[in-house]
Design goal:
The chain has one domain. It is built from eight helices and eight strands. The protein has helices spanning 14-21, 76-87, 99-106, 112-126, 145-155, 173-178, 208-215, 219-225; strands at residues 2-6, 25-28, 42-47, 50-55, 132-135, 160-163, 182-188, 227-231. The chain starts with a strand and ends with a strand.
């Protein structure tokens, strides 16, 4: 059983979605500290001026986890919706930005994690993801970094852990093996797809929403095109 674990992202990008698609169980790591200036409360879309961050304002504290981090005000949904509608009005599948997603953005959420997970679920559904999703906070486990990852893997019955390459600095393959887990690293490279942009070159590293609004039913095909074979620890 393949398991992947990741902090909830706002309007997640394609590598995040691909990682979830490759596993049997995807765990939203909502019980770790909020990371400032990361992609937990922001992501990029493509505008006429180039990539632009859409940021959800939050009241962050070193003492709060992502699921405890509150959203700071109620003005941001209107701004995000207006920006998306304006910048993608000529996208072939602009209608994919539907009432359901608008409703999710406009809803009052108890925390950033709740918003992110709801939006991720909307995107996952449209990309055809079928893995089981679990919140780490529901597992009631202790630990940090590698110890927490291994504990989560054991709790959900994993035999293989699909990790992001950013975790290599603190992971020990031998430790995973000692707990009966095979460690693999995701290998993903964004592949060009048609974009409603005047730019001469393809713009990568955007929210998966950009893909959905530009290619619609072919979105899953383009997502899979960027997937390379998972790598063993070097």
């Amino acid at each position: 059983m393949i398991v992947a674990i990741h902090q909830p992202q706002y309007l997640p990008w394609l590598p995040y979605c691909d990682k979830a698609d490759q596993c049997d169980v995807f765990v939203y790591l909502d019980n770790v500290q909020f990371q400032k200036n990361g992609v937990q409360n922001r992501n990029q879309i493509l505008t006429a001026q180039g990539p632009r961050w859409l940021t959800v304002p939050v009241r962050a504290s070193l003492d709060w986890t992502i699921r405890e981090t509150p959203i700071a005000d109620r003005q941001w949904p209107r701004k995000h919706i207006k920006t998306i509608e304006q910048e993608y009005r000529r996208a072939p599948f602009a209608a994919e930005f539907d009432a359901a997603l608008r409703g999710l953005l406009e809803q009052e959420w108890p925390s950033l994690a709740d918003l992110n997970i709801a939006v991720s679920e909307w995107i996952f559904e449209r990309l055809g993801l079928r893995c089981r999703r679990v919140r780490a906070s529901e597992l009631s486990l202790a630990g940090a970094k590698e110890d927490l990852v291994i504990a989560i893997c054991q709790a959900v019955g994993a035999t293989e852990y699909l990790s992001g390459t950013g975790a290599k600095s603190y992971q020990t393959p031998e430790n995973f093996a000692a707990h009966g887990l095979t460690l693999r690293y995701q290998n993903y490279r964004n592949q060009p797809y048609p974009q409603c942009s005047t730019a001469a070159e393809f713009t990568p590293d955007l929210s998966a929403l950009d893909l959905l609004l530009n290619v619609g039913p072919q979105s899953r095909e383009y997502m899979l095109a960027g997937r390379l074979a998972a790598a063993d620890p070097a």
